[in-house]
Amino acid sequence: MAQILIIEDEKSIQRMIEYDLKQIGYNVDSELDGFEGYKKASSGKYDVIILDLMLPNMNGMDICKKLRSEEVSSYIIMLTAIDDEYNVVQGFEVGADDYVTKPFSPRELTARIKAGLRGRNVDKKTDVLKYNDITIFQSSYEVVKGKIIVDLTLKEFELLVFLVINKGKVLSREQLLTNLWGFTYDGDSRIVDVHIFKLREKLDPQADYIKTVRGVGYKII
Amino acid sequence: MAQILIIEDEKSIQRMIEYDLKQIGYNVDSELDGFEGYKKASSGKYDVIILDLMLPNMNGMDICKKLRSEEVSSYIIMLTAIDDEYNVVQGFEVGADDYVTKPFSPRELTARIKAGLRGRNVDKKTDVLKYNDITIFQSSYEVVKGKIIVDLTLKEFELLVFLVINKGKVLSREQLLTNLWGFTYDGDSRIVDVHIFKLREKLDPQADYIKTVRGVGYKII
DNA sequence: GAGAAAATTAACAGAAAATTAACATAATAG
DNA sequence: CTATTATGTTAATTTTCTGTTAATTTTCTC
After folding, report:
1. Which end of chain B is more exposed for a tag (fewer CB within 10 A), N or C?
2. B-chain residue closest to A97, CA distance
3. What one-character DSSP code corresponds to residue B46?
């Protein structure tokens, strides 16, 4: 599930937001201090960051600017009591994705969070993936087809997961290499083919889940 | 530059927004009527759609819902006079990416547009192209005509995409060669003809989507 | 450190697509 | 109306890409 960080020093507001979001099922972390919040956010692991502007030790604008300079791509929603055009524009300029003024309705905030998550396609961090009669348990690295456990090697498993997450999209060998092997890899891109072959063989010799798009790459449909 | 569509029946507001956005350098189209606006938006060619809620013939909520059901992935900003929690939440539920209530500051709107453009991957904007009864899914490299999937080779696919993006414009063989084959290519420019022929054959032997402009090149209308 | 498993490289055959070439047909200038 | 040129169409050829297998290297396990 989506990871959300709340950086807000007004405890009443922080608790309210946290409660609502946990109800929906998000994983929520909270931080009252600006600098501590920045350090957490800097990890890059959050899908959404709810960021108050006036904070002790480090203010929201600076946090946002710093995070963006570090290429943190979390969806940042700024939160403030000041409804001032200058601030709003500045907020977006330092890299915020949305800007909400207090008082706001909790439902509006959650709606905006959902919209942010939807736009970025990050809500797919679920443990169990399903694709046709195939079920993938990410935490246990198990794949079940029908009722039979399919033995996949690590690379085959990673490849399958990546294909399923990007279901429908054609993925080039380069995309697969950078995402599954790491940028540094500069070997032959034909490795991908071999793993695709083995995956097809293990999943189902008949059905062709995995389609080849000649000249481009592979996709699962 | 980014393509923006404004669907708004209040002329004063529409003009103001259009003026501001053109100043920045965006390509702006405007539509006063709901249904006409929907039809334009449905093309999928806009990066951002600014959508009023109360419109003649088709309301903003319905437009938004319909567009999302058609996989149009433009960044949709809803615009309304009603600052009502229920509406905001509903707006996000039908697929809006942002929601702004009137009166709003023009600078805030442009800031929100920029944030929307920034947040999305630029390649998303043109993922789904539509042309008559043909739908092109660029990320999956699929072409659907009516309800039938048309099997195209890579070159045919690229050619179709390029023609549709430059709909109406006549493209010379040289233009097509440099854009689809790369500058270095110095073979016979008649290759284009063969691919055009095959494309016509596969898309529809009857209808002539692709027009020949003798002495110049080809265009799709 | 030996043995097993997995990952990678290499090689080749077959299939698909791109390109060339050749001829047929249609459009246009004179 | 004819000669010329541009385009349509088909077939043949060449090139490229992928599937597949086997051999080699690396990693892991005991």
Report:
1. N
2. B115
3. -
CA distances from B50 to A183, B9, B127 (A): 38, 12, 19
Q: What pLDDT does A124 receive?
A: 45
Cα distance between residue A136 and residue A160, in whole Å: 9
Domain with CATH 1.10.10.10 in chain B: 128-220
Share of chain B above pLDDT 90, in %: 51
Q: Which two tokens stand for residue A4?
A: 């959300």
What confidence tens digit (pLDDT) does each residue in A30-83 have? 999 998 888 888 766 688 999 999 999 999 999 998 888 766 778 999 998 877
Neighbour order of strands in the sheet with A210-213: A171-172, A217-220, A210-213
Was domain B128-220 assigned CATH 3.40.50.2000?
Answer: no
Q: How distant is the Cα of A94 from the closest Cα of chain B, in angstroms? A: 10
**A161 neighbors A155 (Cβ within 8 angstroms):** no
Domain spanning B3-119: CATH superfamily: Response regulator (3.40.50.2300)
Label residue A139 by pLDDT band (50, 70, 90).
confident
What is the per-residue pLDDT across A95-106, written as a single tens digit (0 to 9) for each? 899 999 877 888
Contact by Cβ (8 Å): B80, B88:
no
CB pairs A-B closer than 8 Å: 70
Rounded Cα gap, residues A41 and A74, in angstroms: 8
For B173-220, give the DSSP string.
HHHHIIIII-TT--S-TTHHHHHHHHHHHHH-SSS--EEEETTTEEEE
* pLDDT band, very low/low/confident/very high, at B123 (cuts 50, 70, 90): very low
With a cut of 60, say whether residue B121 has pLDDT above it: no
Location of structure tokens 């054959």: B201
Chain D: nucleotides under 7 Å from a protein CB?
6-11, 16-22
Pairing of strands B48-52, B27-31: unpaired
Predicted confidence (pLDDT) at residue B181 exceeds the cutoff of 50: yes
Report CB contact under 8 Å: B119, A119. yes
Question: Which amino acid does the sequence have at B24?
Answer: I
pLDDT of A110 strictly over 50: yes
CB proximity B216–strand D (7 Å threshold) = yes
